[in-house]
Write a structure and sequence with these properties.
Largest sheet: 2 strands, antiparallel
Shape: elongated
Number of strands: 4
Strand order of the largest sheet: 1-2
Oligomer: single chain
CATH superfamily of the largest domain: LysM domain
CATH topology of the largest domain: Membrane-bound Lytic Murein Transglycosylase D, Chain A
Strand content: 5-15%
Low-confidence stretches: 103-131
Helix content: 40-55%
Mean pLDDT: 75
Distance between the termini: 41 Å
CATH class of the largest domain: Alpha Beta
Radius of gyration: 19 Å
CATH architecture of the largest domain: Roll
Number of domains: 3
């Protein structure tokens, strides 16, 4: 999910980039319609991304192909997200990354200097929500959203395990 900052008096692009521990180049890529040399007070800009990893616990019989199909991703992404895992020797009980939460679907994690597509920006940000990270309310909503996402992920995982057990019992 995109994290926004509302420009205040006496703020400029490098000061904002420093505040959010990012680069001016990244701000410019994430905000292509904003002239970073003439920011206006009250202007809302993307300053970063809030993401959460989605995990899978390896079960007996799992393969990267099977896991990729289950989470609607591909083997190349699993390899990229889990460079320390040997895909031909998956260990039962091992936790691997299978995606990233923060968009409407499981997608590749944006790279630090990569600007998301316009479609991703639309999907990432609710139109009426202003995630102003300069206020406690912004951090509260960010925390609540992260918690809800984690709870939903755990519930989804439990449902998948129950479904798998039912299928095995048939």
């Amino acid at each position: 999910m995109a994290i926004y900052h509302t420009v205040q008096q006496d703020e400029w692009n490098s000061k904002i980039a420093h505040q959010y521990q990012t680069k001016v180049d990244s701000l410019e890529k994430w905000n292509p319609n904003v002239n970073s040399n003439s920011l206006k007070v009250g202007q809302r800009i993307i300053v970063g991304w809030q993401e959460a990893e989605i995990y899978h616990i390896v079960q007996s019989g799992d393969t990267y192909s099977k896991i990729a199909r289950q989470y609607q991703t591909n083997v190349d992404s699993l390899l990229k997200w889990n460079p320390d895992v040997n895909p031909t020797r998956l260990m039962v009980g091992r936790k691997i990354i299978v995606g990233w939460q923060g968009t409407q679907s499981v997608v590749d994690k944006p790279q630090p200097n990569e600007r998301p597509s316009d479609e991703e920006v639309v999907n990432l940000v609710p139109p009426k929500e202003d995630l102003d990270m300069d206020s406690p309310k912004g951090w509260l909503w960010l925390s609540i959203g992260t918690l809800i996402g984690l709870v939903l992920g755990v519930l989804f995982y439990k449902l998948m395990i129950e479904k798998k057990k039912k299928n095995q019992n048939k």
